[in-house]
Amino acid sequence: xxxxxxPSSLLLSRPWIPVDIGDSRFLCKSxxxxxxxxxxxxxxxxxxxxxxxxxxxxTRAQELNxxxxxxxxxxxxxxxxVVIPFLTGSRHGHGTGSGPDHVTLHRxxxxxxxxxxxxxxxxxxxxxxHCCPAPVSAVCGQLVRPLLVMGGALQRxxxxxxxxxxxxxxxxxxxxxxxxxxxxxxxxxxxxxxxxFRQDFMTKVLPLLLDQDSSLNFSSDLSDLFSCIVSQLNPxxxxxxxxxxxEEEGEKGDGPxxxxxxxxxxxxxxxxxxxxxxxxxxxxxxxxTALPIMQQAAASPLRATERPAPKPKKKKVGLFR
Length: 321
Description:
alpha+beta, flat, single chain
């Protein structure tokens, strides 16, 4: 699957997960396949990327762990069991590991190194992610385009909620005009005013959100919405869904044709059964043998011609002509 689709396409459907590395907060998106991986780390200023396949993994594992003697598959299996709980924000029980023992982050100009230390077979195991700035195409595909679509979707959601509030206010006003009263005054609300709400949000709520620096916090609802949008934008997944629907429609379209062929074949078998000796005709009901008898007469027209022609009748000669 990885080879036919590619890590970049597979990463599109992965959610962004907040991860704390040292004193820094990142949004992380990662994919680990069979002897290859692809990792994105977003720190609010740059999108960092590290991608490696089997040959590079083998070289880096041997350079960082000269005391260990193990196959590349063993190195990578241990790396996955250690790194995935860390990058997914869950340090508990993924595979055989529960996260690295020690993590350090080193920044340089246009480069960032993430160093991990754990234990393998009683000896220290080291690994480094050498991250470089991701290309503009990756930034647009993984972030900009999905976020723009998500912003439009959220705006549409807000418009729907505003209209629903206005309908609720009209419903409450109708109750009041017909004599309905609240039993508890604390539940009373003022009619919703869209412009007032927008102004209060811009002047009161938005500054608090910016002060909290919540730009790198993805709630579960936003993460689900982001994944849903990306799955719709992913051309590879959309092609699979379309091809699956075409196959289902093709199977449904062939159904009547197949049934028609089966009925035709059954009728032919019944017709052939009618040509058999009359023993079968005496054992079957009259309604079921009517069609084969007609087919028997149509299938053997020579029998009528083989019969001797009737002799013409002589006219009787009487007294009166």
